[in-house]
Amino acid sequence: MLNRVPQWWKNAVVYQIYPRSFADSNGDGIGDLRGIIGKLDYLADLGVDVLWLSPIYPSPQCDTGYDISDYCDIDPVFGTLADFDELLARAHARGMGIMIDIVINHTSDQHPWFQQSRTTGSDKADWYLWRSGEDGPPYPTRNIFGEPSWAFDEQRGQYYFHIFAPQQPDLNWENPQVRQALHKMMNWWADRGVDGFRFDVINLISKPHLIHHTPATVTTPVDGPQVHQWLQELHTEVLRGRNLITVGEMPGTTPEEATRYTDPQRGEIDMVFQFEHVDLDSRGSKWDLKPLYLPELKHSLARWQHGVGERGWNSLYWMNHDQPRIVSRWGDDSDEHRENSAKTLATVLHLHRGTPYIYQGEELGMVNAGFDRLEQYRDLESIEAYEREVAAGRDPEDMLHALRVKSRDNARTPMHWDASPQAGFTTGVPWLEIQRTDINVADQLDEPNSVLAHYRRLIALRHDHAVVCEGVFDLLYPEHEQLWALTRTLGEERWLVLANISTTPVAIPDELRLAGHLLLGTHDEQDPAQLAAWESRVIRLV
Ligand code: TEU
Ligand code: CA
To answer: Which residues contact 137 (CB under 8 A, 6 or more apart)?
Structure first.
């Protein structure tokens, strides 16, 4: 492990790698660990501190690795434990840590624990959430992917609960043996030298109404009654004294709960991934689209800045492997505005208070997949949603449009290393189609005006100036529909961030025309009176 000061992660930038789609070393069309090893210099040069890898464990890959069948090995498609150790050592040698993805709300249905649990009377019988239901499933609820959340197992003759796909049965966290087995597994990885954990849907582990068969009041058991207790236990058993970086993915959580999860005094985790801002452009169902209203987005992020505030700590993200590409989503991916909108959205996010996460290809301004046929998609959620919505009467073209906007595959297409047809990702046939290879690393690497160069400068800004990490955050002009303006203040130092989140020029309010030094901008020339389309500026006030 790297030698680090306490709370080093507050000043870190995390880069998310989706291993299937990052770099393929052996031509089978699927990214792998040796592929990542080959790109470490690129990542070190970008300046990121931590690499988060989406799951690389043995898995039937129903949910591309979020269905784990063995927690203590590497899926052969990605490589071996020896490859992993090499990756870890080589990342450490370049000053970067590795954060692994811990999926412990559920396992794969192919995990030996579940296979044993299917036999009543086995010592794992109580490791999952089983119910008999003479007249059908115990609660006829829908899971996060929109399917029924109970599945019938013929062998055991009972139903089991799954918040995600039927191939992802939920573990019974009330059983202390389950928790101990999970702690043991995480200690095994920590002893191996990993630098952090990203906990998948960790606020969904406590669901007493399901375990005890009392009437359900909520479909999705968000922030259940025992979750803090179990995270404190996990902290004591695994994390204490190791000085790792931890982040918990937490759909539906609130700033109040997030403060509890991340208050260092309580000994739980370092930060959470909240979902409030990424839910602003849909109504109820993610497939029911609505336009983003900028003041709502600004207000949402500011609410988390103040809500989690000084006690806890925020993570900052625009996207990940579940969200569409940010430049296509809230930027403008037309030729005219793609680069500036990518840079400006990055600037605004990274100048909030918290630890920023960059998702592979975001630093290039990569755009959505652009698929127009169902056959091009691989994500189970997208395929199921299409079938369900169309069966319920939705116009197929309208649903294809919704997938084009929101499908998780938008972010999962392979990374573009160069302009060749397979983008330098593979010499074989990529597992997911590649388009728009004109947006690629090779072209941006030495280009000072590239999106990539902008990200590099933004990361350096954080590392060089304490105000980016620690400064007090204030949002200005919250109701403005084009301008995103904020300040960061640390002692005497005061920074002003101005951004035009639109394609029409916007006047800079008189009181914000302040003297200062431009630290980072999108345009060569700055008009003191207005911001050009998608222009942003980071100014140190004098
Ligand atoms: O995601 C949890 C989650 O609730 C969402 O991100 C979800 O995938 C999305 O809202 C569906 O529209 C995590 C992982 O990030 C995701 O890839 C997995 O599929 C899921 O858990 C199950 O492990
Ligand atoms: Ca491969």
So the answer is: 131, 148, 149, 150, 152, 159
